[in-house]
UniProtKB/TrEMBL annotation:
InterPro entries: Glyas_Bleomycin-R_OHBP_Dase, MeMalonyl-CoA_epimerase, MMCE/EMCE_epimerase, VOC_core
Full protein name: Methylmalonyl-CoA epimerase
Similarity comment text for this entry: Belongs to the methylmalonyl-CoA epimerase family.
GO molecular-function terms, A-Z: metal ion binding; methylmalonyl-CoA epimerase activity
Keyword Metal-binding applies: yes
Protein source organism: Winogradskyella epiphytica
Domain called VOC: residue spans: 3-131
Taxonomic placement: Bacteria, Pseudomonadati, Bacteroidota, Flavobacteriia, Flavobacteriales
GO biological process, one term: L-methylmalonyl-CoA metabolic process
Pfam families: Glyoxalase_4
UniProt entry keywords in alphabetical sequence: Metal-binding
Domain of life where this protein originates: Bacteria
Length: 134
């Protein structure tokens, strides 16, 4: 794993949260995007060399809706950049980690993604991210 790619924050209302974080960071978000397969609308902010991803559920049975119902708004996951997501999934599986996604899938911000199960990582949801090469 190369670095923290972003921190994901679950929010109820992405528009009001965009305003809150724009005020906090002193600049507007640079991108919004809907990821149908995950049932989320996302918004990205740059904060120095780091990124923050806001996530709003697009339907009531999406993972974000379930997370907010159970835990409320807040930090949802930490994403790490990797060079080869398939090799990293294989390595982590061989090390005994439980993967939610055994194969990478299309995510937001031009990334392939896969999540590790939080039961295997002390309750922290970990996302692997690889840039999709154009």
């Amino acid at each position: 794993m190369k670095k923290i790619e972003h921190i994901g924050i679950a929010v109820k209302d992405i528009e009001s949260s965009n305003h809150l974080f724009a005020t906090l960071f002193g600049k507007e978000h640079y991108k919004t995007e809907e990821v149908e397969s995950e049932g989320v609308k996302t918004s990205f902010f740059e904060c120095g060399p780091n990124k923050i991803e806001l996530l709003q559920a697009t339907h009531e049975d999406s993972p974000i809706a379930k997370f907010i119902e159970k835990k409320g708004e807040g930090i949802h996951h930490i994403a790490f950049a990797v060079d080869d997501i398939e090799k990293e999934i294989e390595r982590l599986t061989e090390e005994g980690f439980t993967m939610i996604h055994k194969k990478p899938k299309q995510g937001a911000d031009n990334k392939l993604i896969a999540f590790l199960h939080p039961k295997a990582t002390n309750g922290v949801l970990i996302e692997l991210c690889q840039d999709i090469k154009k």
